[in-house]
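Researcher: Re-running this chain for the archive, since the previous output was lost when a drive failed. Same request as before.
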Amino acid sequence: MTAGIQLPDRRRATSTQGRRVLLHTGRLVAFVGADGSGKSTVTTEITRWLSADIAAVRMYFGSGKGTISLPRRLLELAAAVTRLPARTRRRVSHASIPAAPAPFHRGAGRSRIRDWGDLLWVLALSRERHARFRQARRARDKGMVVICDRFPQSQFPGLNDGPWLSHWLDHPSWIRRAVARKERAAFWLAERCAPDLVVKLHVPLETALTRRPDVPRAQLTAKLHQLKQLAYPWARRVVDIDAGQSLERVLFDVKRVVRACL
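Model: Regenerated structure tokens:
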């Protein structure tokens, strides 16, 4: 553990099967931030730090390539395979033409096959989130500390783990409306499973681009702008951390606010 940052007194916790848990109820701590802010690294280190004294578990709530279900992994693999020929043709015939920025939502109507792929992908993601929220609530009820790598929000579509298919809620197709409602239900569940603490990891644009050169500049800019506006009125506390500092300093600041939450 970092010098100067101590966990709560042992009298505030009890022991269950050799692992100490907090009395009465546990805590749910969510970490949010744009690409390159260090969410995965910070949540991994904080979980390891907490686990030295109390029962803690890390859960991934993002839509990226973290711990994902087999159905979504297979869908992403199929999508990657189908994109390979298009990428090859684009490099050969349009090497000098900048690519158009990707839309910040799915189901954009570019092709029927792509829309159906997006439909299945969002269904798989919604199912993942429902299962993880149930796991998170059970763990918190048992007195554990749940560390969330990312957390769904319904204020901005597409980016920062926002809804992908909200534009389908009024679609003529009942199937698409049903999938959009299924996705929306997962976000309602996020509000009912409100975090005790939300840690927003802010990082300068140029630092984020250096750490994640594979992410388009326009997308990173939009994510950073949205992060500043994101509000979590149902969370007990929201804290802003400068993630552009050294990892040691970021962890020190994060441990200090997590300790205050326990």
